[in-house]
Amino acid sequence: MRTALVIGTGLIGTSAALALASRGITVHLADHDPAQARTAAALGAGTDEAPGGRVDLAVVAVPPAHVAATLAGAIRGDVARAYIDVASVKGGPRRELLSLGCDLGSYIGTHPMAGKERSGPLAATADLFEGRPWVLTPTRDTDTEVLNLALELVALCRAVPVVMDADAHDRAVALVSHTPQLVSSMVAARLEAADETAVRLCGQGIRDVTRIAASDPRMWVEILSANPGPVADVLSGIAADLDETVRALRSLESADEDKRAGGAAGIEDVLRRGNAGRVRVPGKHGAAPATYEIVAVLISDEPGGLARLFADAGRAGVNIEDVRIEHATGRQAGLVQLMVEPAAAPGLSAALRERGWSLRQ
User: Fold this and answer.
1) pLDDT number for residue 290
2) Are 81 and 54 in contact (CB under 8 A)?
3) Same domain, 274 and 324
4) Which of 30, 154, 214, 267 could make an SS bond with 117 (beta carbons 3.0 to 4.6 A apart)?
5) Can you give the pLDDT at residue 76?
6) pLDDT score at 34
7) 86: alpha, beta or left, given left = phi > 0 and alpha = psi -120 to 50?
8) Which helix (H) or strand (E) holds 251?
9) Are strands 133-137 and 107-112 parallel, antiparallel or unpaired?
10) Which stretches within 43-199 are classed as H helix?
11) What is the predicted pLDDT for the residue at 360?
12) What is the pLDDT, as a whole number, of residue 283?
């Protein structure tokens, strides 16, 4: 690949363009809003000038509802040797292209599993896809050259290629991406009219659950409109669990001992099934989830504090596997939870205490 055309300069399109441009690819940028393409060009993602001829790869990075029409226009204009899209749904756009009479030999649907709560070119980074899965959905009609160019794009963005059937992909993202967005938003919506004293009690748990509720509603309406059936199927299962859980909680209010026992068993069942599902979420580098020991350190909110803590952990010869920060309400301090291998925890705790850090259970 030497040249590329990125159509749509939002977060994903601009991030892909930045990655390609940083590796020597000549990238042309196009957007229905010329100002957005100029912004992406100013960030170093390429040029907003039209290509002088046919490019090697066209990357369509527009909202799902506009993917098929944009791809059809590009294919009919013969702007590239190969065409991909990066929409978060795959079955619908492919069927729309077929209905429009497009030859699908030069096209492959893809979906990089990466993103942010923020959108637009100013949120883009060249390393957005690094180490992240990038789904490819080739069919029997896909030309080998097209697949190879798509794989080259994934490699240049330092992502990890995953080959899937388009409809299987849509069912998968309904479960692991689209439904969590809705559930997060539903939980966060309970806070809108909550009493201020209740909101002030928010801790790390509610922050974890509601983090993605900050996402752009307009973007998510477009995504969910393109994949409504699979998302509704997952939500139906959750709704059944919710009904059972509500009944179990009501039973716990009963004066009848047998009902209370049944209610407790129902709550324990959903919690244990949650444990079993959580264990299946891939851990570090995509490996099986590991069980880490937590070393909790009280840290003041001041410049250089985290850097000093990480440096002291490094001097102790301990690799930090993961980290979380829980901020203290009303105090200029927080609790940093360092996740480390269980065997390393005692040594790290001792080393940090020697260096003056205050540890918590």
Assistant:
1) 62
2) yes
3) no
4) 214
5) 94
6) 95
7) alpha
8) helix 228-252
9) antiparallel
10) 64-76, 91-99, 144-156, 166-173, 179-189, 196-199
11) 83
12) 67
Range of the domain at 310: 293-360
For residue 51, give both structure tokens: 């290509």
249: tokens are 């909680």
First to last CA, the chain: 54
- 278 CB neighbour count, 10 Å cutoff: 9
At residue 105, the pLDDT reads: 93
Residues lower than pLDDT 50 in the chain:
none
Domain boundary among 134, 164, 194: 164
Classify residue 108 as left (phi > 0), alpha (psi -120 to 50) or beta. Answer: beta
Structurally, the chain folds into a number of domains equal to 3
Residue 288: predicted pLDDT: 52
The predicted pLDDT at position 303 comes to 86
Positive or negative, the Cα torsion across 67, 68, 69, 74? positive
Say what the pLDDT of residue 147 is. 96
Within-domain flag for 312:
yes
Residue from 259, 236, 239 nearest 248 by CA: 259
Same domain, 269 and 346: no
* Residues written for the chain: 361
pLDDT attached to residue 119? 79
Same domain, 253 and 350: no
> Which residue type, as a one-letter code, is found at position 229?
G
Residues 145 and 61 in one domain: yes
- Record the tokens describing residue 81, joined without a space: 């040797």
pLDDT of 331 reads: 61
- Is 195 inside a domain boundary? no
Half-sphere exposure of 166 (CA within 13 A, CB side): 21
CA distance 12 to 36: 13
The values of phi and psi at residue 91, to 5°, are -65, -45
155 and 109 part of one domain: yes
* 111 and 253 inside one domain: no
CATH number of the domain where residue 106 is located: 3.40.50.720
